[in-house]
Amino acid sequence: MTRVRLVVVDDHALFRAGLISLLGEMPEFLVVGEAGDGRGALETIRREKPQVLLLDVNMPDMDGVKVVRIVRELPQDQQPRIIMLTISKNEEDLLGAITAGADGYMLKSAEPEELRKAILLVNQGMSVLSPQVTRQVLRAAMAVEQVQPAKIGLSSREKEVLEFLAQGRTTSQIASDLFISENTVKTHVRHILEKLEASNRAEAVSKATQMGLIGSSGG
Q1: Which single residue of 50, 150, 158, 183 has CA 20 to 30 Å from 3?
Q2: What are 6-22's pLDDT values in tens digits?
């Protein structure tokens, strides 16, 4: 089994050591690097080329959101998937991380199995949010000034796919529900991300909710 290469970034040494120890007990993962601040994170990413980055939000010198923005400017093949792992439920941190291009936002209070599943999903191209913050993301998005949906120009099929994304459906589930291939679903998702100028599925759902393209009560 090929293990998922991880880098852990957190300015609290004891938490970082504990997390690395926990991940080391999970056979799916291989921790290839760690850092205690944003600048160290960027150096470690460039050196170790991880598949998934576990990143704290609030750190001295360079915060996690800024790290995400810089990483998303790297060549595509050098960009890891990114999960923010934090104690912060602050809406500014939440939306800032998602808008910057984070693929997930998990609280440090998450159970080990919840974190394990989140890493695996993100590595497969999915987006994840801790259940405790999902409502906050939607509420914060609805509070932002609405943009005219007509300017977006989503097709009826793209809107259907977007609704399924808001419900947390996977690519295979959407394909099954709409009786289309998984490659077709991926093409629709790519077009949705381009039209909404979103970095990932979570940001697309947030923006679409804000614009009134979909409701805020997905399943």
Answers
A1: 183
A2: 999 999 999 999 999 99
Let me know how long the chain is.
Answer: 219
Tens digits of residue pLDDT in 184-218: 999 999 999 988 888 999 889 888 887 778 765 44
> How many whole angstroms separate alpha carbon 111 and alpha carbon 78?
29
21 and 117: one domain?
yes
Instruction: Report the candidate in 117, 101, 4 with the shortest Cα–Cα distance to residue 55.
Output: 101
Q: Which of 89, 98, 107 is nearest to 15 (CA)?
A: 107
**Are residues 58 and 83 in contact, defined by beta-carbon separation less than 8 angstroms?**
no
CB atoms within 10 A of CB 76: 6
The amino acid present at 134, given as its one-letter code, is: T
Q: Which amino acid is at 95?
A: L
The two structure tokens encoding residue 33: 């690097």
CATH code for the domain in which residue 108 is found: 3.40.50.2300
98 CB neighbour count, 10 Å cutoff: 29
Domain of 103 in residue numbering reads as 4-130
Cα–Cα distance, 177 to 179 (Å, whole number): 6
Residue carrying structure tokens 């093409």: 187
Distance (Å, whole) CA 154 – CA 156 = 7
Say which CATH number the domain at 184 has.
1.10.10.10
